[in-house]
Amino acid sequence: VQLQESGPGLVKPSQTLSLTCTVSGGSITTAYYRWNWIRQPPGKGLEWMGAIAHSGSTVYSPSLKSRTSISRDTSKNQFTLQLSSVTPEDTAVYYCSRGSGGDWGEGTLVTVSS
Which of 2, 33, 80, 98 has the smallest number of Cβ neighbours within 10 A? Predict the structure, then answer.
């Protein structure tokens, strides 16, 4: 399976960051996979943000839950991350991935700056 992140590389503070992960070679509705969003700020470690299951149910990191929403478009085999009220601390490389294995997108850098 291949995953590809897409979205704007620059977002202004207080706005909503929106990224899409397009999946090919496999369906996002295939049991029992979970589809993740993970980020890595510059010079820091990986942070799991949340996931959407094959069923469409979602789970979020407690630290980001109030600002995060993950949804999907099964007709396009895509899932989307929205992170609201962003600050420069949200600057990171954002990745989408499948399950707990090695299927990751290449990542996309999002910079939060005015």
Answer: 2
Strands 92-98 and 103-104: antiparallel
Spatial contact of 17 and 110, defined as CB atoms under 8 Å apart = yes
Residue 99 CA to residue 54 CA, distance in Å, equals 10
Residues shown for the chain: 114
Helix, strand, or coil (residue 66): helix
Backbone angles phi, psi at 48, to 5 degrees: -75, 130
pLDDT tens digits, one per residue of 19-31: 999 999 999 998 8
Average pLDDT for 11-37:
95
Give SS3 for 85.
Answer: coil
